[in-house]
């Protein structure tokens, strides 16, 4: 290895600098750091707001003793008003689910989505999310509130992609056992499965029209 020349030794030991040059070298890193900080803060804020809105809608819903189409339209409109402006592909689904004969049954289900969205249709008995359903007593019910929205970053500088926030909350009605729906299902009873009654007869009650309906046996 050849020894370093005096010029190289002087260059290696030179500690003088130029503030303008150093600033130009560090400036892009500072800009990226600020952009990432803003984007992550905005994403966290949007996610938190979406979660709080889901809690608010669920709490309001649980305080009803009966609902109709007007009530649910108001709740979905309220959700749209409260969601952050950069959240699109909004979807809301509110469902009343009861428990009887060891089975979760949809009494009614109402959903509202932005145009062109799929996968947020009203629930049926076959599409009840069993992984989040609580242990329930017979003839008991819960209100399942689902809120979803896609957040878009204000800039693409940081390279952060669009994020979809989804929240599902299960709440018990506060004042009644089952919240009836004026048109989808006005019954306050959880229908029994066919063949679960004495001598194999079907139980009483009505089927949900908005969610997973099922036929009942004729009463004697």
Average pLDDT over all residues:
80
- Poorly predicted regions: 195-220
Principal-axis shape equals elongated
Number of strands: 4
Distance between the termini: 106 Å
Number of helices: 3
Strand order of the largest sheet: 2-1-3-4
Helical percentage: 25-40%
Reported for the largest beta sheet, the result is:
4 strands, antiparallel
Beta-strand portion reads 15-25%
Order of helices and strands: HHHEEEE
Rg over CA atoms, rounded to whole Å, is 29 Å
Global structural class: alpha+beta
Quick summary of this structure?
This protein is 30% helix and 21% strand. With 220 residues, the protein is an alpha+beta fold.
Give keywords.
220 residues, alpha+beta, four-stranded antiparallel beta sheet, 21% strand, elongated, disordered C terminus
Overview of this protein structure:
There is one protein chain. The chain is an alpha+beta fold and 220 residues long. 30% of the residues lie in helices and 21% in strands. It is built from three helices and four strands; from the N terminus they run H-H-H-E-E-E-E. Helix 2 packs antiparallel against helix 3. The longest helix is centred in the N-terminal third of the chain and has 44 residues. The C terminus is likely disordered.
What topology emerges from the helices and strands here?
Blueprint: H1 6-13, H2 19-62, H3 69-82, E1 87-100, E2 103-113, E3 140-151, E4 163-171
